[in-house]
Amino acid sequence: MTQRSERVTIAGAGPTGALLAILLRRRGYRVTVYDARPDPRRTSEESGRSINLALAARGINALRHVGIYDALRGAMVPMRARMIHDQAGTVTRQPYGSRPDEAIHAISRGRLGRLLIELADAAHGVEFQFEHRLIHADFAAGSAQFVDLRRDALLEVPMRPLLACDGAGSQMRRSLRDAGLIDAREEDLAHGYKELSIPAGDGGAYRLEREALHIWPRGGYMLIALPNDDGSFTATLFLPNRGNPGFDTLSGREAAADFLAANFPDAMALMPDGVREFLQHPTGFLGTVHAAPWHHRGMTVLVGDSAHAIVPFHGQGMNCCLEDCLAFDACVDLHHSWEDRFAAFYARRKENTEAIAAMALENYLEMRERVADPGFQLQSALSRELERRHPGRFIPRYSMVMFHPEIPYRIAASRGLVQSRLLARLTAGVASLAEVDFDEARREIDANLPPIDQDLSSVMKL
Ligand SMILES: Cc1cc2nc3c(=O)[nH]c(=O)nc-3n(C[C@H](O)[C@H](O)[C@H](O)COP(=O)(O)OP(=O)(O)OC[C@H]3O[C@@H](n4cnc5c(N)ncnc54)[C@H](O)[C@@H]3O)c2cc1C
After folding, report:
1. Is the N or the C terminus of the chain less surrounded, counting Cβ atoms within 10 Å?
2. Burial status of residue 462 (CB atoms within 10 A of its CB: 0-12, 13-18, 19 or more)
3. Atom of ligand 1 nearest to the CA of 226
4. Does residue 458 carry a pLDDT above 80?
5. Does the beta carbon of 53 lie inside 6 Å of ligand 1?
6. Beta carbon of 281 within 6 Å of any ligand 1 atom
């Protein structure tokens, strides 16, 4: 590691801040990370609950880059398919990919976060200051104010630079917006979420298919469950905030119990504490953050959720943030001044993060409604068949996003649009794969979907 005297400050020790700290430390910078939370290595998992998320190829790529992936592998549970649970309790399996290695992976959020901080601290010498909250940024003076929550004392930190990885509710984003330096808005979804749990069976047995992401689609809302490595599942109920049903009208015990029993009877049979958890656990908010630009001079830049938080329906929020860190690191390598680095990072990532934000919103409708539709199931099966017949030209959009980190999000979105129109045409009036006109498919693919390598080579030149 080359030693530089230059100090970099990071606000936020979430996945983005911790990974960025490691990458900058590897380049020789002295890095201090401030976070409002207590040190997660000294506290038990959030309120004793096990909360997990889906890790896919983009995130794995970034974790491999800093050598942390192998330490996590043992704790990950591969999810190879969606299991769709209909109202009558019938379960249908929909594979995520065409190849056995095309899986996404459930991982404990707390374990991943702690490992990144441990690696940053112990192996790389990053300095962490927990219980320090960023409260204000003065862009004329070039300094930021933190409160040391343990001592109730103010701390002035120069922004030379300060990288703001302080999450969806970013204080730095709000300060930049309030100072008129960027445009930023938070677009709330009218739906929220609640985390529930499905405990393990006897001897740590899984009481649902282990290697799958389970979905109970119910049109206007849905329940999902991801496996943990101890036999339990973490379930999340997504529901409108207001209305009937809505979180506001289901605040009483009887209404909540009736709603859960009527809509998710098979899942409720596996959740002895379901109603209590529903009533006691907080309702989480969901939304999309739009900001432009993400930086001010060479002083500060937004990275991760602070710049572009998205709704969780593609399981890509953190994957995208970890990919941000690699892109940022490449910009540090390519440019000399922080101002040029920030501008290059924004230019590289803005369009891609907008693309994944839009795809994540679309996926909510897909998960809560379309997955249960036979027409959608036929199109999914046809996607996989077209990929088999036309490798390198037709790649299902879900696969481009989840399994192909070499394909930027914006290309996945634009090719995905061409493909979805083609799938609609090929399945119109058709009941099974055997009835699909594969000659027409070949003609259309040859005409409208150039080999993916062609698209990617033009990206490299940009
Ligand atoms: C219900 C749900 C499910 C999700 N599932 C997935 C999934 O399956 N796969 C996936 O890839 N992504 C998922 N995500 C998204 C993922 O959680 C985020 O994209 C990711 O955590 C963002 O990382 P970050 O480090 O940028 O922000 P955060 O994880 O929010 O970390 C921000 C850090 O900054 C600190 N901080 C905040 N404000 C201040 C301040 N003023 N001063 C100092 N420190 C501060 C916080 O304490 C925190 O440690 C999900 C999100 C939700 C809500």
Report:
1. C
2. exposed
3. 8
4. no
5. yes
6. no
Ligand 1 pocket member 287 (CB < 6 A): no
Residue 39: DSSP 8-state: P
| 92 CA to centre of own chain | 25
Q: Is the CB of 192 under 6 A from ligand 1?
A: no
- Mean pLDDT over each residue of the chain, to the nearest integer: 95
φ and ψ of 308, to 5 deg = -155, 50
Label residue 460 by pLDDT band (50, 70, 90). Answer: low
Residue nearest to atom 49 of ligand 1 (CA): 14
What pLDDT, on the 0 to 100 scale, is given for residue 334? 96
Q: For residue 210, report the distance from its CA to the centre of ligand 1, in Å.
A: 26
Q: What is the pLDDT of residues 431-442, one digit of tens each?
A: 999 999 999 999
Q: Which pLDDT score is estimated for 228?
A: 97
C-beta atoms surrounding 334 within 10 Å:
11
What are the residues facing 52 on neighbouring strands? 108
Q: What is the pLDDT at residue 124?
A: 87
Are the C-beta atoms of 85 and 216 separated by less than 8 Å? yes
Q: What pLDDT, in 10s, does the model give residues 172-218? A: 999 999 999 999 999 999 999 999 999 999 999 999 999 999 999 99
Q: Is the CB of 37 under 6 A from ligand 1?
A: yes
The alpha-helical segments, DSSP class H, found in 14-108 are: 15-26, 57-65, 69-73
**Is there an atom of ligand 1 within 6 Å of 312 CB?**
yes
The DSSP letter of residue 43 is S
Where is average pLDDT lowest: 88-102, 138-152, 288-302? 88-102
∠ CA(60), CA(189), CA(132), 5° rounding? 60
Distance CA 7, CA 24 (A): 10
Task: Scan for tokens 């830049």, then name that residue.
Answer: 301
Give the contacts of 212 (CB within 8 A, at least 6 positions apart).
79, 80, 81, 82, 83, 93, 227
Strand partners, 10: 33, 163
Q: How many CA atoms, within 13 angstroms, populate the side-chain half-sphere of residue 80? A: 8
Which pair of tokens denotes residue 88?
């009558």
